[in-house]
Backbone:
């Protein structure tokens, strides 16, 4: 099918929403987003971030967009528009219509617009999703760099679910009972970026925010280094997705390491002053999980397990290039 | 080399410029661009858009950014910030430092910022460059859709140079004398996006604007269809880059078809009311080339050659997916 035909089809299945004046079809999309804006791009590469055998086209679209929305959420901002680069392999790759349908459904949930992009041939499927977001009321975006000694380390939800989902997609024999297994697969294939949580944490007065897309231990270390203080993480306090411990154990992994060291969960990590915890939970309308604290010490991460210093072998997801 | 190390190195070699508050290193870049903004993304895929044998790393960086800046220029906007997705093949691919140096040099020319992005492993080099731009004085961006019957079809400079440059990089035996050949290679490897020209044409009152990155014949047809009128293109009036005719002829191609049907020149096509030509040339500080006109007829392109209806076999660059 001709590239131009696809651009027309994709244009026909996307909806323009608030903040976007002109979408797919011109040299560039036209937006009207209030300053300050946030801008991010994420890559999903076949054979690196996903396998086609275990990722249907609609989930792939959802997941690629979710990763970039999560980065916007991690700044305390809301997504406005995405532009999408799609490389299509010789065999046609995942169904392009389904892929954009998966993206469009998530875009609709977040009242944002798939506003443009580019299509190309190539050896494997690659998705390069760029999202522009904006903060409400012109509030300054919340970076990784503001944590202060004494702040609590909070996470917005259970971890390890996405990696457990990936494991049981690859090795169905590891799967727990169906409802739990379904939730784990969904955590991997259809992650929900925490936009509302990011807004609530920013409004409650969090000092720093980021998503833990590469794993809590690795991302918390990055946050601590950016903030110039030390994070103490209590491994046994890390909330685990239902079934994640069971799958990790079946795969021969330590469940606590699994939860703290596996990526793609897209929960948020916040540095929150202790006296803002109640207000944050009121705005979030659910409890936060306190997994540690920041302290004045050389920047980095200190892991504790039942109060004793600890280490984990695989702290998270990172490429060797 | 570790991904994190590269992110640090790339961050160290980029400069924050006006409109960007926070660059590489957080979940997202922070910008303050006045509304309206324009947003675009372009893909460059190894083996499809370039070959490593004929494209050095710095040129590749330049070229990838230039393609997206050109889309911003084609809206009458100026680039503010880019986020860059880079897929790195197993052998390391083009030198990453050189590649970003090529981008940074072009970003400096346009007073814009390389503000973020993503790195991944993958089978071949892929660059996915997203650029955000803004129009001066809150002026509405100039789309493809405004051409009116009676408008002139103008182009900002000579065509066919990039494709001639590509041809002589692939087949050195086709090269003309050195200074001409050098200019053709530079047209291919280091194209100059026409940001100032886009601003001048918008200020002069152009009705529609786009870049001719996929070839004049194809892109003018798209502009005419978007505008709901017919474009008449006089092939013999198409300005040709010095040496392009000679290289095209040596490669067995018709020089006029070569100029009108080859891509990556990044000159702009404008629909300009005849009474705005003088003002446009005054603002551009050089002549425009009038290559045809728009007329009231079923939307599309009509090619003339010395006054007689004509056709070209390869109207431009488009993927079959």
Residues:
């Amino acid at each position: 099918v001709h590239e131009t035909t696809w651009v027309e089809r994709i244009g026909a299945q996307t909806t323009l929403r608030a903040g976007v004046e002109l979408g797919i079809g011109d040299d560039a999309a036209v937006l009207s987003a209030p300053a300050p804006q946030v801008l991010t791009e994420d890559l999903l590469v076949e054979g690196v971030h996903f396998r086609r055998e275990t990722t249907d086209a609609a989930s792939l679209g959802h997941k690629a967009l979710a990763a970039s929305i999560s980065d916007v959420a991690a700044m305390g901002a809301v997504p406005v528009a995405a532009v999408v680069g799609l490389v299509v392999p010789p065999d046609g790759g995942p169904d392009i219509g389904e892929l954009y349908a998966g993206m469009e459904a998530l875009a609709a949930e977040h009242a944002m617009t798939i506003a443009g992009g580019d299509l190309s041939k190539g050896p494997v499927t690659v998705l390069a999703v760029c999202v522009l977001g904006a903060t409400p009321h012109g509030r300054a975006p919340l970076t990784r760099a503001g944590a202060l000694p004494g702040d609590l380390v909070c996470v917005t939800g259970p971890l390890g679910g996405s990696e457990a989902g990936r494991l049981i997609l690859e090795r169905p024999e590891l799967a727990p009972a169906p409802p739990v297994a379904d939730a784990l697969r969904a955590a991997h294939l259809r992650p929900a970026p925490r936009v509302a949580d990011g807004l609530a944490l920013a409004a409650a007065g969090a000092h720093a925010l980021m998503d833990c897309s590469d794993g809590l231990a690795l991302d918390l270390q990055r946050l601590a280094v950016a903030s110039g203080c030390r994070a103490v993480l209590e491994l046994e306090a890390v909330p685990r997705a239902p079934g994640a411990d069971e799958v990790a154990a079946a795969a021969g992994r330590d469940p606590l390491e699994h939860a703290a060291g596996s990526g793609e969960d897209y929960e948020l990590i916040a540095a929150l002053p202790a006296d803002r915890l109640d207000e944050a939970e009121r705005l979030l309308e659910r409890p936060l999980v306190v997994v540690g604290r920041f302290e004045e010490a050389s920047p980095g991460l200190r892991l504790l397990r039942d109060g004793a210093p600890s280490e984990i072998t695989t702290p998270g997801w990172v490429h060797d290039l």
The mean pLDDT of chain B is 96. DSSP finds ten helices and 13 strands in chain B.
